[in-house]
Amino acid sequence: MDYGYYLHASIYAWRNRKMTPATYTCITMLLGDLRKVGVDRDDIVIIAVDKGRSWRKDKDSEYKSSRKAKKKKQKDIPWKDMYASFDKLLDQLDAYTPWHVIELWSMEADDIISYGVRYFKDKRCVICSVDSDFEQLFALDNVQIYSPHPKRKCYKEPPKNPASILAKKIQKEVSDDLISPVLTDEDYNRRHLIINLMKLPDDIEKRIEEQIKFLPTKEFEINKLPFRNLHSRFENIYEKDKVITFEKSMQRLERKKEKKKKEKKDG
């Protein structure tokens, strides 16, 4: 689970309903998506977290450089207090649930998820994120991607040629995260290193492996978790009445495609 998405989506939701704590919204989103994905008690749930200055900034100083300025303009959001409350929530989830919070200095959630799905290559791995960078990982047979975006709430359709995704992302001139253009071979190699989730630098992968290979067995201590009115929902994630299967998602996406075709034809 890509914690950065849940954190920021919850904070932006808070702007419209400030009576509801952003951390409360975050928990409801996490629980809701786990229930839709369909988890069993022996499944490994990893919450992947960004921590500190990304190692990618050492390769490209302009990597994600526009984000800080954008946050400064959002003066109605107390970012420091928000981040502190979400750090506390992470500590609580790590201490009182069977889930595993993984955060390593200079790492992004992308790194943890990238290595995790390759480390657990013999298990079905479901990535919960809206980040399109993860679509590279469709090249792995064990990977599925569930989009928690409110307008989707279903699995993404694997592309016909997932191996081409990385090349397309490198060729794309600029984005909010990648401002530096690709003009030379050196630029290309740097962009490849930054974007490639199929293989991370050796030292990065080694650090993640050290963290991920010894995940302790844990149990719920639900009474110690925040927001008592949500306590019953933690155990409810194992019920199967809300599960959205991959097959159902593909059927839903196919209906959307057919609807668009019809609208285009009629229009």
TrEMBL record:
MF annotations from Gene Ontology: DNA binding; hydrolase activity, acting on ester bonds; nuclease activity
Name used for this protein in its record: 5'-3' exonuclease alpha-helical arch N-terminal domain-containing protein
Pfam families named among the record's database cross-references: 5_3_exonuc_N (PF02739)
Annotated signal peptide: none
Span of domain 5'-3' exonuclease alpha-helical arch N-terminal: 15-151
Matches recorded under Gene3D superfamilies: 5'-nuclease
Record-linked InterPro entries: 5-3_exonucl_a-hlix_arch_N (IPR020046), PIN-like_dom_sf (IPR029060)
